[in-house]
Amino acid sequence: MSFKEALQRNLMLLPGWLTRRKIVVIESDDWGAIRTPDKNTLSALNGINPLVEKDLMTQLDALESNEDMTALFEVLRSVNDKNNRPAILTANTIVANPDFEQIAASGYKTYHFERFTETLKKQAGSDRVFNLIRQGISEKLYRPQLHGREHLNVQQWLCALQNGNAELLEAFRYSTFGIPLSGKISKRNNLMSAFDYESEKEVIGLEKIIEEGAHLFRDIFGFTSTSFIATTYVWHSSLEPALYKHGIKYIQGIPYQYIPSPGKDWYEKKFHYTGQKNQFGQIYLVRNASFEPFMQKNTDVVGECLQRINLAFRWGKPVIIGSHRVNFIGSLDESNRTRNLKLLKQLLTEIVKRWPDVEFMSSDELGELILQSKK
């Protein structure tokens, strides 16, 4: 690490909420969202354009299976903190996926969705996932929080389908959309930013998506999600009142919020830090460590994460580790799940060894702790 990188890491930790407690939160995104349905579909998708074969998300990520959940929970159960509590994963969940059959029947003019629990029923090997999720919640291993209604920019997708985008139409045939595209749509070469927009008319409907996502979450899990993270970290602050209205008190993210900026080449960036409040009293929870072994195969991902943890604790900060579901998925490549869960266990074991007074928490628990301390 260069001096410049070290300085930047330390400066990013200066502002924000302070604590003497050794708190570790693991936030994992994309649970419930479709990506690549199966190995046969992956072979077909690889023929769409050369970028698909190079895209690790397309190659490795899929809807979680019974085996994925069982193996993950086994690792989380195996390591306890100072309170004899097991490690817990904040599972940022997408609560709905496109209903491809109904969308096709409308000629791509009308969007329809299904609950992710319905998608699980259709997916081979995922029939027990929701029961396992309930078990994980009861054991305090797995804490769902809201990631969005779907991991998709609905308006941009429908528009592209209606305009005959060949790559997206081909992916649609296989009931997916999350491939990298050879050409840009808006500022990106994919459609994964649910709250992005390139014109003011695209803003219409975004608040409804938040409302429906929050209601679906409550209906599915039986409790309100009090934290939220926008897909690809893209959202405009004007949506925060809608989030607040529907129970969101804590906004997860990375140090920078990417703000939609029509007509510009890239997003505007806004810095946030853990404990920062907006005008509605919502508290930002900012990730300061990373565990993404699926894309860091030649890196000491455990050692790098431990360095970040050590630095955060030295500055009196809670540790918030960012991860993604893809790290723990094995239906497309079993070695991906096996290798990465081994690394996760290694990381958790080393955390409790180095910091025996560590406490594992979920994002909403950390948010509540910060909120109460400020009161």
Structural summary, described in words:
By secondary structure, the protein is α/β, with parallel strands linked by helices. The chain has 15 helices and 13 strands. The protein has helices spanning 3-12, 39-45, 50-54, 56-60, 66-77, 100-105, 116-122, 129-138, 154-162, 166-173, 206-221, 240-245, 301-314, 334-354, 363-374; strands at residues 22-31, 89-94, 96-98, 113-115, 142-148, 227-228, 250-253, 256-259, 268-271, 283-286, 289-290, 319-324, 358-361. Strands 1, 2, 5, 11, 12 and 13 form a six-stranded parallel beta sheet that branches. It has a three-stranded parallel beta sheet with strand order 6-7-10, covered by helices on one side. The protein has a two-stranded antiparallel sheet with strand order 3-4. Helix 5 packs parallel to helix 8 (129-138), helix 5 (66-77) packs parallel to helix 14 (334-354) and helix 13 runs parallel beside helix 14 (334-354). The longest helix has 21 residues, at 334-354.
Question: Which tags fit this structure?
Answer:
375 residues; single chain; 15 helices; 13 strands; 6-stranded parallel beta sheet; alpha/beta
What is the global morphology? globular
Sheet with the most strands, sense and barrel status: 6 strands, parallel
Return the average pLDDT rounded to an integer: 97
Strand content: 15-25%
The H-and-E topology, N to C, reads as HEHHHHEEHEHHEHHHEHEEEEEHEHEH
Poorly predicted sequence stretches spanning 5 or more consecutive residues: none
What is the helix fraction of residues, given as a range? 25-40%
Number of helices: 15
Alpha-beta classification: alpha/beta
Rg from alpha-carbon coordinates: 20 Å
How many E strands? 13
Distance between the termini: 39 Å
